[in-house]
TrEMBL record:
Name this protein carries in UniProt: Fmu (Sun)
Organism phylogeny: Bacteria, Pseudomonadati, Pseudomonadota, Gammaproteobacteria, Alteromonadales
Keywords: Methyltransferase, RNA-binding, S-adenosyl-L-methionine, Transferase
Positions bound to S-adenosyl-L-methionine: D309, D353
Active site, per annotation: C406
GO process annotations (BP): rRNA base methylation
Amino acid sequence: MTQQALAPMLPSFDPKHTELDSLNGTQKRALSYAGTIHRLFTLVLISKQPADRVLGQYFRENKKHGSKDRRIIRETLFGLFRWWGWGQQLLSKEIQAEANIWYSLLSSTALLEQHAWQDIRSAWQAFAALDSQLIHESEQLLTQGVSVTHKLKAFSSLTGVNEAKVDDLLPLWFWQHCKLDEAAKLPLIEAMSSRPPLWLRVQKHSRTAVIAELANTEITAEASEYFSDALSLGYQSINLNEVSLYKQGHLEVQDLGSQVIGQICQPKADEHWWDTCSGAGGKTLQLRSLMYQQANSSNGESGSITSSDIRSNALEELKKRAARAGFDGISIAKWNSDALPVEANAFDGVLVDAPCSCTGTWRRNPDMRWLDTASAIEDKPALQLDILTRSSKAVKAGGQLVYATCSLADAENQAVVNDFLANNSEFELLEIEHPFNGETTKMLTVWPQDANSDGMFVAKMVKR
């Protein structure tokens, strides 16, 4: 989409309308934040680059910002995208000064996110010329509850946008591809509209010891009830690069939903697995870590992981992470053509974590729901089926083939597996247990609301 096509949906902002000499220190900071966030928000929408990449580049180029500045800019930017399904409807309202729209967007985002910087919120509200009674009423509404239905009432009260609906928080094309019962919609929207916690995975170390060591550095970690090596740091703002356990390779960042994939694979200590689309190696490291856990209980370990990807830089990052963790038994086999980069019929297990629309990670990347179009889903199934079909040639008789995505769309998940099975009769589906509710299924979708995680899909097959 061109910049011209995007222009009608972009809020305008011109800070020159404000007499700087008449502002106090807080108001000047609020004005500066408003301008910076507007530039970043507009750049993301026009360039269609991920918001975290745009924000990271901005902070690298502007080192003057302290931790509070960075937090206000970061959380407001992501909050704007989280509530953009409602916020963009402000653009059609007739407001005398166009700059007021942007301040109204900032004010409503701060309200919905319940941001703590009240001084900046108050300055934005004043710049937006919002009625004090409306501000009070909208805040009172949130004392009655913080569900999306309560937040919709508060947003409408503050902004006067009465046409907004809860469903608007996800784009229309999402609902066309991810058809849910009405009863299931609201829990999904609730999850997608909340900040995700920081999930970690413990490697080659006792989780109990890790929690104790983190506590000694005033970092609170909570053990997952589902997996013995998973823990959550909640919503703490932590620079892991300064945490010793992370630098020593005993901790890896991995969402709980993503950890489901390795747990479904359950590689044994002496098995040989191929991670066909490894990226920077999150699943590879998890598989190898699970092998080490198996080895400790069986007094031996001779298995291995082969990792492949088309991106050299991702594979280089995998090597660094494996070295940091002290993991051996991991080899690299880059995809250089359509030909298999590994031997056929050679592996006990093959994991195909296929490229996808990533709709399951939208709560972590709320900008992507507005940057992508339906083509993000519609363009993928043919590629996914091709990768799955070619990768299956590496599974030996009796071996396992695991197909996974971080998508919530049937077209990328169940449909791909069914098409594969229709043309590869030597494979059959295995029953797997949902790790969060204990239900048995042959095709597992983990929804973000199931255990406060990203959304994931996984199916496990065996070669006869």
